[in-house]
Amino acid sequence: MSSIVYMRSKNGDKVYAYVNEKTESGYRRRCIGHIDKVTGEIVPNKERGDAPAVATRSYGVNLLLRRTSDDNGLTESIQVIFKDSWDSLMTFAFFTLCEGFHIAGLERWMEFNETPRMWPLSVDQANSIMKDITQERIDSFFRVWNNKMRNSGYILSSVSTERIVSKES
Which of 113, 120, 134, 145 has the most CB atoms less than 10 A away? Predict the structure, then answer.
């Protein structure tokens, strides 16, 4: 049977009421309120509301990639050529660089990472966007990007991202 225990606070101005609860390791006290000085009755504690929903997202690597792509003119060049889907392409590129997983992990990754695309991108949407990328659009992108990066001294080849091509070639 539970019993109510009364305890005075350290500075002695309030008396609190506790109920003893039996647990496996013995008894535990839970505060149920304080004693009103005038009436002598227990004034219950305020009800605690639900904790606010918390969303945790990773920003670090994605901010670095975004800053790098902005500094190198990639973002602006992709926006020119892929007007409707540039944010999805950037998100997919960030996912590939960060995780290297198959596209099936994209939706889950977007839940926890800040990306250029602010709403979820399903695998089907990603596949349809990838189908819209033609060799002509890729060549146009590199032409636009080359014009933006003319003074930097180097560009990437559209044939291989592992090979650096000099500006003169």
Answer: 145
